[in-house]
Design a protein that fits this description.
Layout: H1 9-16, E1 19-24, E2 33-35, E3 41-46, E4 50-55, E5 60-65, E6 75-81, E7 90-95, E8 99-104, E9 109-114, E10 127-134, E11 137-138, E12 150-151, E13 154-159, E14 163-168, E15 173-177, E16 205-210, E17 218-224, E18 228-234, E19 254-258, E20 261-265, H2 298-304, H3 314-324, E21 335-336, E22 385-386, E23 412-417, E24 429-434, H4 458-476, H5 514-517, H6 533-549, H7 561-571, H8 576-582, H9 605-608, H10 615-627, H11 640-644, H12 657-664, E25 690-696, E26 711-716, E27 725-730, E28 734-739, E29 744-748, E30 766-767, E31 775-781, E32 785-791, E33 798-806, E34 818-821, E35 826-827, E36 836-843, E37 846-852, H13 858-888, H14 893-897, H15 899-933, H16 940-943, H17 945-964, H18 967-979, H19 984-990, H20 999-1007, H21 1009-1025, H22 1033-1067, H23 1074-1077, E38 1084-1087, E39 1093-1095, E40 1102-1109, E41 1112-1119, E42 1128-1133, E43 1138-1141, H24 1144-1147, E44 1151-1155, E45 1160-1165, H25 1168-1187, H26 1190-1198, E46 1209-1215, E47 1226-1232, E48 1235-1243, E49 1249-1255, E50 1258-1268, E51 1275-1283, E52 1286-1294, E53 1300-1306, E54 1309-1318, ...
Antiparallel strand pairs: 1-2, 1-37, 3-4, 4-5, 5-6, 7-8, 8-9, 9-10, 11-12, 13-14, 14-15, 15-16, 17-18, 18-25, 19-20, 21-22, 23-24, 25-26, 27-28, 28-29, 29-30, 31-32, 32-33, 33-34, 33-35, 36-37, 38-40, 39-45, 40-41, 41-42, 43-44, 44-45, 46-47, 47-48, 48-49, 49-50, 50-51, 51-52, 52-53, 53-54, ...
Length: 1825
């Protein structure tokens, strides 16, 4: 404790804490002795005659008889310091019978004392005098890590008489010593002895070994008895059963279609299956279990320890080897066990096992019952069957093989019997039969007539039950029945707060014990004492129980629901005796925990004379009756048809829960479910879901499995699995467990009353008999006594003792004589005098208690808090189990309450379970805090306050919802039906004696108790805080926690008050509007029934009522004279409600203006005070509704309320109701003053959806719109811009028909430039149109690519028809230009074919000549006259034929028509594209607008597009990294004043490059559009050589219009051809060429435009120059075969320019004739780069560099300056052109010539280009002679 208010300081506190008191016995004269030590004792451990103490600082003391010490005196009453542990900080100690252990801070283990049996873990030493380290090392199983050892860190030790257990930091168990209590293989007892002290001659385990059977489990605590061990294990998380085999990974379950039915099969046979614990081929007597089985039966343990029962006895022993060879045919089928039962006395008496319903068997466990008739050979044999994960299962008597019709073998047989068995194994009793059909390759006796189906039929079940009945009745005459002593079925109540479906079980846990008690009692027929119905009923009970155990499993049951019902109806004959037996009950308070799991008891001669039925049977039947209602099975005969519909025709379904419900009227739960609503995490809260495992010797029943058998493998004590055990202790021969409900369970030896009860048998855990209100929270177990630490009436702990009394006598030094013993725990009177006991321990005959004095009230406050928490948890658990669970199990609950109220009740109870769970975990944590730390630092109330806040807030909300809906009034009737009219249980739990309190108020008070408990937290935390200094950190933490809980209490009180106020309002609400307005979460804020609020301008007789809820404002209206006052009402959601006060100065009224999405109205108040009240209430309610609960949280944590004024702009959802286009549409998104404004989503009932931005209630901005089409599963989808609720601007519309339009819209119609794709390539009429639209029709210039016809039209349109001049090209090379009218070729036109045949004249239809014209032949011949007919199909001609004279010139011969006269001019094309751009700049037409406004619009477009891309991941990914960088640079607009200089011109040029590089800039978008239309026109069919002039003209038109835009944006930029003035600093611009200083659209815009248009353009050039280029290339290929010298000579190059000639002694040496490509190599390489450039300027630059390279090489050769003459230059350049081998040089030349800047045509570049052009034509004419 930090800075506690203690004046004595640290020394005084040390004296007051950790005081150890010891004593013996329980007599009134006993006085505890105080052990005096200088430091507080932190932990004490007691052995038989010695003890070990751990004190503060980590020191260890020993006292008592210490014979292992190498000193003269071996007995030391005073503690002796263990010097061997000096230097070690010990954190835990343990004491065994005669040895001790200690755990250090680093996880090390030290042992000392007796080591005769290896219990100290040190080999070679009989005794270990001083603490010696023991190495606990883990050997990895990985073969690659062999030889490596890992030191295991240990947390806790436990010591027995001959063994030691250690709990590691990984929560694994390690053991060493001797005996089966180690839990290790091969350590079982070799002999069976009833003497506890007998030591079996076994080999000790000297080194610590891991208990592998607990590997993978989370062990929380270990405890050691003399010869047995206990482990507290956290329950594993359940997982669904696997779909595939874990070995061979094949499907476990298959479905096969067979004609009209389906067969579900689980007959998977794993070829790799190896049974755990039994090697292949092992003989008899060995234990065997399933591959996943961790729960061995009693016989498994006996066989594993070498019990004689494993021998060959009777017929079963002869068949044992055969049964051991069988393997499972499915993962759900239990393995056959080889257990035997021998008649004799060589083995200890075996109590009869109960029928187990813990089996997880599913479909493969229920089969043809008649197969049992053929299972035995000769006399009846007993087969014990052990299923995976099941409890003890015994043999069943099988009839002799009288019928071979059904040869299937039984796979699971269970029995509950008693008495000595006759020879041969015949047993009197009842059996439950779960049989498996014979799979392939298993069983015997399969003949031709064998039944192939693995499923039983109805007659087979009847036959077998009849035979079994006759056989059992015959055996009853000779059977004897000793007293029943069998394992008890603990009444585990299924958790009602979980879903109703069964919980899948993990591979390591069996079905919980509640599965037996959850079987409908109407299906369990009581076994009569001797009547014939007894055995039959028992067998049928077992059959039904087996079937019920598989309800909810994944595989369908093999017994069809209808057949099961018929079998039950056939055999169930209720008698008076059976009815009487079925209703017998035990009035004992602990009867719920003592019911045996066996369903029936054996009857026989020995029991017929008994006057009273067996007590255990009655207890069982009582527990069954408590969990299941009785029902008449015969009353369901009329439901046969419905039962047949439970499965598909021919499909054998599982036993339907509906069928079982019809017999029991309550849902059968196949497994115990426990929903943990609060997270169980190692770092958060302790787990309450635990199991207790035991192993070792069991001759006294100390293992708790209901028998006296020993076991060397840990087994789970099933009846404690759901008891929430928190602490375990082990005495010499008994065991004790403490639960979270502060109950004490004990079992084992009770020779001295140490169990705290006198009930028998003591082989199963039973409750110690303590007075009501005594809550046990710590325990110590000695040799023959138990010490309990409990809460009593006050918060100071009290001590109880049960066990042997020790007589005090003189001279009794070595051994005290024993006196009497207790029959139930007795209170030790001195416990109040030794202080506040924090923990107890016991050993030998000694008891010890650690106590603390109450230092400044801290210890008392801590104990008080822990005791209050434990008391609260017990109370909540009682409410859960005694009230809530019976209510939910009531038959007519849902019918009485209705579905809605039932759902609310289930939610409430689920939240109650969460609070209960959290309280239990908190109580466990506080108990551990009191026991160990005694400090507030580890208090979960402070560490995890948010868990309490969230859990209690959710519970309070559920409680308020149920209260508001009137749930408690409706719950009163089911309560009286379940608990009787008096409802004493409820009155008792509420602690109310007032009979006048209504039952609904009692129920509300009962469920409000958890919230009342919160006040205890506030009070106790404040009380604890007063124990610290004000300036200490602990004080601050406690005060902060107190404040949080106080705020939580106030918040929950306010919520309760709101719920009560709302409930009162609903009770007095007039009219029929309650049903429509009443909602669980709706709370009343205020209402205007007092006429404090009226509607302005209301009618004279109209009545208006305004009701303000926490989520809506309700306006109810009506007429005063009518009886039904309020006839209509309307609900205004608060999230979409705006309220503004009306100024009193302007109107003189106290009014409020309310605005909703569809209307606004004014409310008048009676006074300014009322106006302020309503304004504040509405604003606060709106703010809370908008926060969605966030306001509650903020007010809870900060202590301040919500804001007064909600935001005018908000996010909300609203459904429109008035007439209009938004009727019944739901909008969710941003609002502004009652109008959708911002981003939102609108959904119409007909499926229309709009997602995008709004402005003033209308769609405005970018949005997506989905319009369902009448066609199934298809819809129209629009994505683009909107304006004033209509599609306006650029967008993409995908039609349900498959068409896609991408372009401009106006008023919801296609208007402007756009592209329409119709169909796909494989559809009926695919086409693509791009061009101008007007009012949803094609109008203006456009291009249509008709893919089906292979035609492309480029021309004018009107009303969706071709009209005006246009051009058509086809895929066959036809070219037409001319007029069109009404979608047809009409008027003058020119038609050319691929072979240059042409026609110029009149047309009347597509490709139809009609009228005058001229037909020109490729050879120059032509015909003039009148033509008619379709081109290509025969023409009718009336005219003259002309053939040119041979002596005419070529010009006179050809009459080729001139193209381009009848086409649309380049300036008239794509007007819509440029109009759209000018509109984006804010201009109505080109050059008509303000430049500053245009720049503002560009900035807005940039920011809008960037935001759009930022919000859309798909659009964001579409931008490259360079485009992102370009966007950043575009934010800066080039600014300048005065004339444009070269620097400014350069800035403009760079800006244009960036702008054109991204489509987010309007200029870049324009460029993309131009590139799109250009490629659309001239790619594909449009790649026709006759279109080249139009393509070039179109590019020049682009340049002209783009340059006009640039000049508009930069008004100071000079006009085309003007010279830009030089800057002052000439050196900085020296790199700029002279042509760049002339303003030119080509120089400015071609670099950004032409690269994008180059592929289609150059294709046209290549097609146009195809013939010339072929001739050129042929000559180039021929001339390049020559050597350099030959080529230079051929071309006439002056010899002085030959680079290869060198001067040698005044003589010139000639160039060698063989080399090639050696001359002018640099120039050749430079010229080849002309094909890698795009613009004419770049190509001219390459030509210039080529000339420079030639000049440089010649200058180096001549070594003197010279001037080129064309006679010298031309041959050299011709050589370079030839060697460059440029494939399409003609196309390159033509492109440069067409697009070259005019200002350079007459300069140096012009001359060089002319030289290249001359070379091209010269090469075509060259001839080699």
């Amino acid at each position: 404790m930090e800075k506690q208010k203690s004046s004595s300081g640290e020394e005084q506190r040390s004296v007051d804490r950790g005081l150890l008191h010891t004593w013996k016995g329980y007599s009134c004269s006993v006085t505890p002795q105080k052990v005096l030590l200088s430091r507080p004792v932190l932990q004490a451990a007691l052995g038989y005659k010695h003890g070990v103490l751990l004190v503060e600082g980590g020191q260890v003391y020993s006292f008592g008889e210490l014979p292992w010490k190498q000193t003269a005196g071996t007995t030391s009453p005073d503690p002796i310091l263990e010097a061997g542990l000096s230097g070690q900080k010990v954190v835990g100690v343990a004491a065994g019978g005669f040895h001790s252990g200690a755990v250090t801070e680093d996880g090390g283990v030290h042992m000392w004392g007796d080591n005769a049996h290896g219990q100290c873990g040190l080999s070679g030493l009989a005794t270990v005098p001083n603490p010696t380290p023991v190495a606990v090392v883990d050997h990895p199983s990985d073969p690659a890590s062999l030889g490596l050892q890992t030191q295991v860190k240990i947390l806790e030790l436990a010591c027995g008489e001959q063994h030691t257990l250690a709990l590691s930091a990984r929560h694994e168990v390690w053991s060493w010593g001797t005996g089966p209590q180690l839990g290790l293989p091969g350590t079982g007892t070799s002999t069976t002895s009833s003497t506890h002290a007998a030591t079996p001659p076994l080999t000790p385990t000297w080194r610590p070994q891991k208990v592998e059977h607990l590997a993978g489990r989370h062990v929380l605590q270990v405890a050691c008895g003399a010869f047995h061990s206990l482990a507290l294990v956290r329950c594993p998380i359940s997982h669904p059963p696997p779909d595939k085999c874990g070995q061979c990974h094949q499907l476990l379950y298959t479905m096969t279609d067979k004609e009209d039915h389906v067969i579900i099969s689980d007959n998977h046979r794993c070829p790799l299956l190896v049974e755990t614990g039994k090697p292949a081929g092992e003989g008899e007597g060995e234990g065997e279990c399933g591959a996943d089985d961790n729960h061995h039966t009693t016989d498994d343990r006996r066989r594993s320890e070498g019990s004689p029962a494993g021998g060959k006895g009777g017929l079963l022993g002869q068949q044992q080897h055969q049964r051991q060879q069988e393997v499972k045919s499915s993962p759900s089928m239990p393995l056959l066990s080889s257990s035997t039962t021998q008649h004799g006395h060589s083995s200890p008496p075996r109590p009869p096992s109960s029928l187990s319903t813990h089996s997880t068997s599913n479909a493969s466990s229920c089969v043809d019952a008649a197969a049992a008739a053929t299972a035995g050979v000769g006399s009846p044999a007993q087969d014990e069957v052990t299923s995976s994960g099941s409890e003890t299962t015994d043999a069943v008597p099988l009839p002799p093989p009288q019928d071979s019709e059904h040869p299937e073998q039984p796979q699971q047989v269970q029995e509950s019997s008693s008495g000595s068995r006759p020879e041969g194994g015949a047993t009197a009793g009842a059996a439950a039969v779960l049989l498996q059909g014979q799979g392939p390759g298993t069983g015997s006796g399969s003949g031709p007539g064998a039944k192939n189906s693995p499923y039983p039929d109805e007659q087979a079940v009847k036959d077998y039950l009849k035979k079994l009945s006759d056989h059992s009745i015959a055996d009853q005459a000779t059977a004897k029945s000793p007293p029943l002593a069998q394992r008890s079925q603990v009444d585990a109540i299924a958790d009602v707060f979980t879903p109703d479906e069964p919980q899948p079980l993990s591979s390591t846990s069996s079905l919980p014990s509640s599965s037996t008690s959850s079987i409908p009692s109407s299906m369990l027929m009581p076994a009569g004492a001797g009547g014939p119905g007894g055995p039959v009923g028992a067998a049928l009970n077992s059959l039904v129980a087996s079937c019920a155990s598989v309800v909810g499993e994944r595989v369908a049951s093999t017994c069809e629901a209808l057949s099961l019902r018929k079998v039950m109806s056939y055999y169930y004959q209720p008698t008076s005796s059976s009815s009487a037996a079925s209703v017998a009950s035990d009035s004992s308070a602990n009867s719920t925990s003592s019911a045996p799991p066996g369903l029936v008891a054996a009857g026989g001669a020995g029991t017929q004379g008994d006057t009273a039925p067996d007590e255990a049977l009655l207890n069982l039947e009582e527990s069954i009756q408590k969990s299941c209602s009785l029902g008449d099975v015969r009353r369901q005969e009329e439901g046969e048809a419905q039962s047949r519909r439970l499965s598909l025709p021919g499909l054998l379904s599982q036993v339907s829960p509906r069928l079982l419900r019809r017999y029991s009227r309550s849902r059968v739960k196949a497994a115990l479910l426990d929903a943990v609503l609060v997270a169980d995490d190692d770092n958060l809260l302790p787990s309450l879901q635990t199991e207790v495992w035991s192993w070792g010797r069991g001759q006294e029943g100390q293992l708790g499995h209901g028998d006296l058998q020993s076991g060397s493998q840990p087994m789970c004590i099933k009846c404690l699995s759901n008891k929430e055990v928190l602490r375990i202790a082990a005495g010499a021969h008994h065991s004790v467990a403490i639960t979270a409900q502060s109950q004490c369970y004990s079992w084992g030896s009770n020779s001295s009353g140490q169990l705290g009860h006198m009930e028998t048998p003591s082989t199963i855990p039973r409750l110690a008999k303590l007075s009501e209100g005594i809550r046990v929270w710590d325990v110590g177990a000695g040799q023959q006594h138990t010490l309990l630490l409990a809460d009593g009436d006050c918060f100071q702990p009290i001590l109880y003792y049960s066990g042997q009394q020790v007589k005090e006598g003189a001279g009794q030094t070595s051994q005290e004589s024993s006196g009497g013993y207790t029959q139930q725990p007795v209170l030790l009177p001195f416990c109040m005098n030794i202080g506040y006991v924090s923990s107890v321990c016991a050993g030998g005959q000694v008891c010890a208690a650690l106590a603390d004095k109450n230092v400044m009230g801290f210890i008392a406050s801590l104990h008080e808090l822990a005791a209050a928490e434990r008391k609260c948890y017990c109370k909540l658990t009682s409410i859960k189990t005694q009230v809530l669970q019976p209510l939910l199990n009531a038959d007519n609950l849902s019918t009485t309450l209705g579905p809605a109220s039932t759902a609310l009740l289930q939610t409430l109870i689920g939240r109650f379970n969460g609070v209960c769970q959290l309280t239990g975990q908190s109580a466990a944590s506080l108990t551990a805090l009191v026991r160990h730390l005694k400090d507030c630092k580890g208090m979960i109330l402070l560490e995890h306050t948010h868990l309490f806040t969230d859990t209690y807030t959710e519970y309070s909300s559920a409680l308020g919802d149920y209260l508001v809906m009137g749930g408690f009034q409706a719950l009163a009737k089911p309560c009286q039906d379940v608990f009787g009219k008096g409802c004493e249980v409820v009155f008792k739990l509420v602690d109310s004696t007032d009979d006048t309190v209504p039952l609904p108020d009692l129920l509300l008070s009962l469920l409000h108790q958890p919230i009342k408990h919160l006040q205890e937290y506030t009070r106790m935390l404040l009380k604890l805080a007063t124990c610290y200094e004000v300036d200490s950190a602990d004080y601050q933490r406690l005060q902060e926690g107190c404040s949080r809980f106080e705020s939580l209490v106030l918040h929950l009180k306010r919520k309760r008050k709101e719920a009560d106020y709302t409930l009162h309002f609903w009770r007095s609400f007039p009219g029929k509007m309650t049903d429509s307005l009443r909602k669980p979460s709706r709370r009343l804020v205020c209402e205007s029934s007092n006429k404090a609020l009226t509607l302005q301008n209301a009618g004279r007789f109209s009545v208006n009522w305004f009701i303000l809820f926490n989520d809506a404002l309700v306006h109810a209206q009506g007429m005063a004279p009518y009886k039904n006052l309020f006839s209509t009402h309307h609900v205004f959601p608060l999230s979409s409600l705006w309220v503004d006060p009306i100024s009193e100065e302007a109107t003189g009224l106290n009014g409020l203006k309310l605005t909703t999405p569809e209307e606004s109205f004014t409310l008048l108040t009676s006074s300014p005070m009322e106006k302020s009240k309503w304004l504040r209430s509405i604003n606060q309610a709106v703010e809370q509704a908008l926060s969605g609960g966030g306001a509650e949280t903020s007010s809870l944590t900060s202590g301040v309320g919500p804001k007064a004024d909600p935001p005018i702009s908000r996010t909300a959802s609203y459904t429109f109701y008035k007439e209009g286009r938004m009727k019944e549409a739901t909008y969710e998104g941003r609002w502004l003053a009652g109008k959708p404004h911002g981003r939102g989503v609108v959904k119409w009932p007909d499926g229309r959806v709009y997602t995008g931005t709004f402005k003033n209630g209308l769609e405005d901005g970018f949005g997506e719109y989905i319009l369902p089409s009448k066609n199934a599963n298809k819809s129209d989808h629009y994505q683009g811009n909107w304006k004033e609720g209509k599609m306006h601007g650029f967008g993409t519309y995908r039609y349900a028909t498959g068409e896609v339009y991408e372009g401009c819209f106006q008023d919801n119609m296609r208007h402007g430039h756009g592209m329409l794709r119709s169909g796909k390539l494989n559809s009926s009429s695919p086409s693509v149109f791009i061009g101008q639209w007007h009012a949803d029709r094609k109008c203006g210039y456009g291009v249509l690519d008709d893919i089906t016809r292979g035609e492309k039209y480029m021309g004018q349109w009107q009303d969706d028809l071709r009209h005006g001049n246009g051009v058509i090209v086809t895929q066959f090379g036809l070219y037409y230009e001319g007029g069109f009218s009404n979608n047809k070729m009409m008027g003058s036109g020119v038609l050319l074919s691929e072979d240059d045949t042409s026609f110029e004249g009149e047309f009347s239809e597509d490709w139809t000549l009609s009228g005058k014209g001229t037909l020109n032949m490729p050879n120059g011949d032509y015909i003039e006259g009148s033509f008619s007919g379709v081109w290509g199909s025969g023409l009718k001609i009336s005219g003259s034929f002309y053939k040119p004279n041979l002596f005419d010139s070529d010009k006179d011969k050809k009459h080729t028509p001139r193209l381009g006269r009848l086409v649309v001019g380049a300036e008239d094309k794509w007007l819509g594209v440029f109009e759209e751009y000018w509109a984006k700049l804010g201009c109505h037409a080109a050059d008509q607008g303000e430049t500053s406004k245009a720049w503002d619009n560009i900035a807005v477009a940039l920011s809008t597009n960037r935001q759009l891309h930022r919000d859309s991941p798909e659009l964001r990914r579409s931008l490259s990294r360079s485009q992102h960088k370009a966007l950043e640079g575009l934010e800066i607009i080039p600014q300048h004043t005065g004339p444009v200089t070269m620097e400014i011109y350069d800035n403009i040029r760079r800006y244009l490059i960036k702008a054109c590089d991204t489509a987010l800039h309007p200029l870049g978008r324009l460029l993309e559009s131009l590139v799109g239309v250009y490629r659309m026109t001239y790619v594909g069919v449009g790649a026709n050589r006759r279109l080249l002039p139009q393509a070039v003209s179109e590019i020049k038109s682009y340049l002209k219009r783009l340059f006009g835009i640039v000049r508009f944006l930069f008004p100071d930029l000079p006009d085309e051809g003007c010279v830009i003035p030089e800057t002052a600093d000439e050196t900085t611009e020296a790199h700029l060429e002279v042509p760049r200083r002339v303003v030119s659209s080509s120089a400015l815009l071609l670099p950004v435009l032409l690269p994008r248009l180059y592929p289609p353009l150059f294709t046209l050039y290549a097609l146009d120059k195809e013939k010339e280029d072929d001739a050129y290339w042929e000559c180039v290929s021929r001339l390049n075969k020559q050597s350099d010298q030959a080529l230079l000579v051929f071309l006439g190059v002056n010899q002085k320019f030959w680079p290869a000639s060198t001067a040698n002694q005044g003589e010139n040496q000639e160039v060698a004739s063989s080399p090639k490509d050696g001359c002018f190599a640099a120039a050749v390489e430079t010229l080849q780069q002309i094909s890698t450039t795009f613009t004419p300027a770049d190509k001219l630059q390459v030509i210039q560099q080529t000339f420079e390279e030639i000049t440089q090489e010649v200058l180096a050769l001549l070594k003197e300056s010279f001037l080129w003459s064309m006679d010298d230059l031309f041959p050299v350049f011709l050589y370079v052109v030839l060697r460059a081998r440029i494939r399409n040089l003609g196309s390159e030349v033509s492109l440069i010539e067409d697009l070259m800047d005019p200002c350079v045509m007459h300069g140096e570049h012009g001359i060089m280009f002319t030289t290249l052009k001359a070379c091209y034509y010269q090469i075509q004419q060259e001839r080699i002679t």
